[in-house]
């Protein structure tokens, strides 16, 4: 039974409310009596004497003893490594390395399930049975019935097999660009589905029409970017704009050193010097300024995946139907605050007896060079799509947050005010992560079969965690400063001066960050009057220690972890966690269908090498004779593209029971007048942000936010709008 709340009436001082929000098991399944506390918050030192033992007992129940296989009805939170992504007992080629707990593949921890080990690899866990999450972390009945699980299941077990059957050759690409358009205009013919009505109910936005007639027609909703301007993906201006106002605004950074140079071992990967030269850059800037002036004035920006991807190139190229390069893209900041692409560099390390190959591609008017530039953009965008999904999205939000959920439930009593502050930011995250391990990031799952890095995708995210992830850089201001996009300036709004003044993600995000941090500050300062109260709180200190030493154990000895000694320390830590779970996740998640469902704009995989890499006479002639067909062959296959479109729709949707930041108030917050007033101020500030975003999108001088055929930037509009998809910032990583 799901027990929502209990209210005791008829008491001398008025009713007492208990916000339970928990599944209660039959006494035959769980003979242990349940404990529920009222909405009143207490620090450990202020707990009424009669409740102290119960407070400690409930935490002990939630921690468990670390033994045995977890049952569906359990409420136990514990840690384990990612040792259940592979399935070596099914096929040896489905074995995958264990992520976490070893020097080769450092990684955050997941929730322990306790399933038995694999027969063929005792260090890996079997994937049999359900993917356990504590009972109260599972989706509500509303979300479960109408949304996620059935949607994913239908896509995987109904739609995709039908597509594969109809195509016969799962590697078949789209013969014509007009065939891609038919996905949205006229639909595609597929074998008759077993239950087309169910699919239409479950995918109301994705599947516009599933016909039960002989035509068996499947049609997808037109993505916003394609609907606004079907040719926008051609334009370099839109390619650049989406680095600031698209679905992955976290990769662009300032060029801080010149010449560009790899840090990888030259004995293994070849000469480290970039082929992007001073002459090439100055030619691309067309007389605006010299290279030295551009560097001094901080006008050169880069997205650089070269060193992260290059170690995987030779391994990935052994897999049929994909290829890979180390890549980087260079941009120039023009006087109207738009970015102009200058160059894309692609590198292949020495392999198969061949020396290192690298080439720089630039926008140009000459036909052959223009088509090579378009191919280079396709490869780079496939890399950007993979990095976005595996790092900006999965690693930095979903994966990094799961340890916060586990530690919060193990170390902070539900009576603790910080538990009550964090609670809405942790909703559904463990369940959606378990679903990801089940069907998205697992061996031969959606990511591995549809993205360029294929079976090495999760290893890549481990490398990014090792080389790039730092908790102290996850808050928005710290992230912008780290990327060189902003500098501290006490006289500027938000205390930061943006080097790219028209940066929609950062412009809107900083307002949301300030409002969020102020709300956290008001809340924390109400309960913690001085540093001694923070330092002497045993639950709080155990929580922060466990996040560092258990949840992110592979980085426990890093010197950059913030200390937790003062209210200011606590405010910064909580605000960072809340930002990642709400605004960061919304910025990289809810625009996926709008920008990537028309896959030429953001292909997930490039399947063929560049035409100019060691070309044969016949291959080069095919490129010259029919470059658009060769590009279609490079794009994802029909099965890959359709599969990704389906999943992107699932990921871009809001749940019917979504809780939006600043809109929903936790019952416990309303118990304290000062906290309720602070929340109302927070909510009012977010309503102001809505108005600001609308005004900015209507400002013709802000070229990165609007214009003819441009999708306006609304991913950080806090509140939802009825009937409008993708808008609203949920508290938590709930999808």
From TrEMBL:
Predominant place of localization: plastid
Disordered as annotated region, ranges: 105-127
Molecular function via GO: linoleate 13S-lipoxygenase activity; metal ion binding
Cofactor(s) needed: Fe cation
Pfam families: Lipoxygenase (PF00305)
Gene Ontology CC entries for this record: chloroplast
EC number of the protein: 1.13.11.-
Occurrences of domain PLAT (ranges): 1-38
Pathway where this protein functions: Lipid metabolism; oxylipin biosynthesis
One Gene Ontology biological process: oxylipin biosynthetic process
Location of this chain's protein in the cell: Plastid, Chloroplast
Domain Lipoxygenase: 41-735
Keywords: Chloroplast, Dioxygenase, Fatty acid biosynthesis, Fatty acid metabolism, Iron, Lipid biosynthesis, Lipid metabolism, Metal-binding, Oxidoreductase, Oxylipin biosynthesis, Plastid, Transit peptide
Function text: Plant lipoxygenase may be involved in a number of diverse aspects of plant physiology including growth and development, pest resistance, and senescence or responses to wounding.
Family, per entry: Belongs to the lipoxygenase family.
Protein name: Lipoxygenase
UniProt organism field: Vitis rotundifolia
